[in-house]
Amino acid sequence: MATLTMQVPDISCGHCKAAIEQAVGQIPGVVTVSVDVAATSVRVERADGVAVASIEAAIVEAGYTVGTIAGV
């Protein structure tokens, strides 16, 4: 299992949090998704083999911009 943290500067409210958690949470192999509105970050615990690109794409498709990615 690996942990990934992404900066998502567009996060500003509870709706953003819910939308991102729902979008990323639907990806097979994602164990947990935690959005920190104050820090504008998304923390994802994922099984080995879950592509970072698929997580990033889910966030972008939900209408948000992905910035820095750590833990790749």
Write a structural description.
This protein is an alpha+beta fold and 72 residues long. The chain has a single domain (2-70), classed as Alpha-Beta Plaits (2-Layer Sandwich), CATH 3.30.70.100. It is built from 2 helices and 4 strands. A hairpin with a 4-residue loop joins strand 2 (30-36) and strand 3 (41-46). It is globular, with a radius of gyration of 11 Å. The N and C termini lie close together (12 Å). The mean pLDDT is 94.
Q: How would you summarize this macromolecular structure in one to three sentences?
A:
This protein is an alpha+beta fold.
Highlighted features:
2 helices, Alpha-Beta Plaits, single chain, 72 residues, alpha+beta, four-stranded antiparallel beta sheet
Number of domains: 1
Strand content: 25-35%
- Summarize model confidence as the mean pLDDT: 94
SSE order in H/E notation?
EHEEHE
Task: Give the CATH level 1 class.
Answer: Alpha Beta
Fraction of residues in helix: 25-40%
Structural class: alpha+beta
Biggest β-sheet, characterized?
4 strands, antiparallel
Number of helices, where a helix is a run of at least 4 consecutive DSSP H or I residues: 2
Ranges where pLDDT stays below 50 over 5 or more residues in a row are none
- The CATH architecture would be 2-Layer Sandwich
What does the overall shape look like?
globular
